[in-house]
């Protein structure tokens, strides 16, 4: 893979050594989006995370979810299903960024879709499902948190620093995307990803806030197994080889006991 240098890793390792020197550990988690059915790519993701000994939050599209997905997760107790909107359909106004739960649709309709998604996946996964809403394209209308709370959700996961206004919901976001969506849809430049990881680690160690950031928020990695090419798989493999099991890092179980969910 081009763009992969040891200098980037050295800077990250030096930062992690500072965490260890302080007797601290930083929490990380992995969220994978757009799951709908069993398949070779999903099997690879499930096996890789199991081998690395890390939990996986799997965001499932309720309208398209197949029984084979529940079968694929049987016995894979390190995987927690999450609710990825309803149908991953774009309802944004022409020219606006893609959004399924934006202000273009009435609030009652959006709440109904959110409730349908929760109900459909509860029927498929039972108690394994975490009532955590992952908005497609990581965006939604400002009134959605209150609607989600009323619909029975406990948490939300988007992208970037978690907001201050939470409407009674816990937020556990992702921050580092493995895919360069604007530059060919292959792997993001590895050194750029490492620079982002270094920044997230430093911000948390130093307790920085940029107006929205929670210094104790876990660092979230984001993947999309259905569109992974060889470069993206390689990037994920290298990250897990270096980060899984590192003494300065912890990968908490994604469950109702997941620490951000207890801080709502």
Protein model, in words:
With 264 residues, this protein is of the alpha/beta class. The chain has helices at residues 6-21, 40-52, 67-73, 107-125, 144-151, 190-205, 230-243; strands spanning 26-35, 56-60, 79-83, 132-133, 155-156, 170-171, 176-177, 219-223, 249-250. Strands 1, 2, 3, 7, 8 and 9 form a six-stranded parallel sheet that branches. A three-stranded parallel sheet has the order 4-5-6, with helices on one face. Strand 1, helix 2 and strand 2 form a beta-alpha-beta unit. Helix 1 runs parallel beside helix 6. The longest helix has 19 residues, at 107-125. The radius of gyration is 18 Å and the shape is globular. The N and C termini lie far apart (40 Å). 37% of the residues are buried. The mean pLDDT is 92.
Structure summary, number of beta strands: 9
| Intertermini distance | 40 Å
- Compressed to H and E, one letter per element, the order equals HEHEHEHEHEEEHEHE
Q: Please tell me what the overall shape is.
A: globular
Structural class: alpha/beta
